[in-house]
TrEMBL record:
<dbReference type="InterPro" id="IPR003697">
    <property type="entry name" value="Maf-like"/>
</dbReference>
<protein>
    <recommendedName>
        <fullName>dTTP/UTP pyrophosphatase</fullName>
        <ecNumber>3.6.1.9</ecNumber>
    </recommendedName>
</protein>
<dbReference type="GO" id="GO:0009117">
    <property type="term" value="P:nucleotide metabolic process"/>
</dbReference>
<dbReference type="Pfam" id="PF02545">
    <property type="entry name" value="Maf"/>
</dbReference>
<feature type="site" description="Important for substrate specificity">
    <location>
        <position position="78"/>
    </location>
</feature>
<comment type="similarity">
    <text>Belongs to the Maf family. YhdE subfamily.</text>
</comment>
<dbReference type="GO" id="GO:0036221">
    <property type="term" value="F:UTP diphosphatase activity"/>
</dbReference>
<comment type="function">
    <text>Nucleoside triphosphate pyrophosphatase that hydrolyzes dTTP and UTP. May have a dual role in cell division arrest and in preventing the incorporation of modified nucleotides into cellular nucleic acids.</text>
</comment>
<keyword id="KW-0546">Nucleotide metabolism</keyword>
<feature type="site" description="Important for substrate specificity">
    <location>
        <position position="21"/>
    </location>
</feature>
<keyword id="KW-0963">Cytoplasm</keyword>
<dbReference type="GO" id="GO:0005737">
    <property type="term" value="C:cytoplasm"/>
</dbReference>
<dbReference type="GO" id="GO:0036218">
    <property type="term" value="F:dTTP diphosphatase activity"/>
</dbReference>
<keyword id="KW-0378">Hydrolase</keyword>
<feature type="active site" description="Proton acceptor">
    <location>
        <position position="77"/>
    </location>
</feature>
<feature type="site" description="Important for substrate specificity">
    <location>
        <position position="161"/>
    </location>
</feature>
<dbReference type="InterPro" id="IPR029001">
    <property type="entry name" value="ITPase-like_fam"/>
</dbReference>
């Protein structure tokens, strides 16, 4: 699709998310978009794997907003899985501390589900995984991070893109999947469904 009319403005995407990180990442692509959080109650379904859960929630958010707005709707959901446990957003600083103590010195998997609805109501979704290794954290480092408050609105109780960068020693997979929006997968999905990227 190299010879598109340069005067053609791509249609506005609707980002079905209240996450400032997703907003910032999407903004970096330079595509026009508006923000409309889905306001869904994010309930964990016991029978679903963490990967299925992330994809299902992303799809549910995109679908809910598409029903309200139509158009091109994008949504995502991030889940942190430590062996059999799923760590959501900590409800209290104490819970944030407990999450970090569990993550310390170990590897976990971050799953981010991504969903796209087209103006015609076609829903596409996928899930991307990244593996993250935490350093061995000293008790004072856990205190320092919990005190910063940064982890409170984030799955797993940390943000790799902010102060949490010093907690992590290695990432295998897409960095942006850990932050909450696998941007390269979104790009490819948009290409696949014929959204005019350029
Ligand atoms: C692991 C990790 C998560 N996060 C964030 C991304 C998401 O905002 C949040 C996971 O919660 P989500 O429920 O996926 O998203 P949200 O409730 O913040 O926003 P919305 O549902 O409206 O889209 O955790 C980081 O910012 N950095 C990280 O390193």
């Amino acid at each position: 699709m190299a010879n598109r009319d340069p005067a053609l403005t791509p249609p506005t995407l609707v980002l079905a998310s209240a996450s400032p990180r997703r907003r910032e990442l999407l903004a970096r692509l330079g595509l026009p978009f508006t923000v409309r959080p889905a306001g869904l109650e994010e309930t964990l379904a016991p029978g679903r794997s963490p990967a299925e859960q992330a994809e299902h929630l992303a799809r549910a958010k995109a679908q809910a907003v598409w029903r309200e707005t139509g158009g091109w709707v994008v949504a995502a959901d991030t889940v942190v899985a430590l062996e059999d446990a799923v760590l959501g957003k900590p409800r209290t600083p104490e819970e944030n501390r407990a999450f970090l103590e569990r993550l310390s010195g170990r590897a976990h998997t971050v799953y981010t589900g991504l969903a796209l609805y087209t103006p015609g109501g076609e829903g596409r979704s996928l899930v991307e995984a990244a593996r993250v290794w935490f350093r061995d954290l000293e008790p004072w480092e856990v205190d320092w991070y919990v005190r910063s408050g940064e982890g409170m609105d984030k799955a797993g109780g940390y943000g790799i893109q902010e102060k949490g960068m010093v907690l992590v020693r290695r990432v295998e997979g897409d960095f942006y999947t850990v932050v909450g929006l696998p941007v390269h997968r979104l790009w490819t999905l948009l290409k696949e469904v014929g959204y005019p990227l350029a």
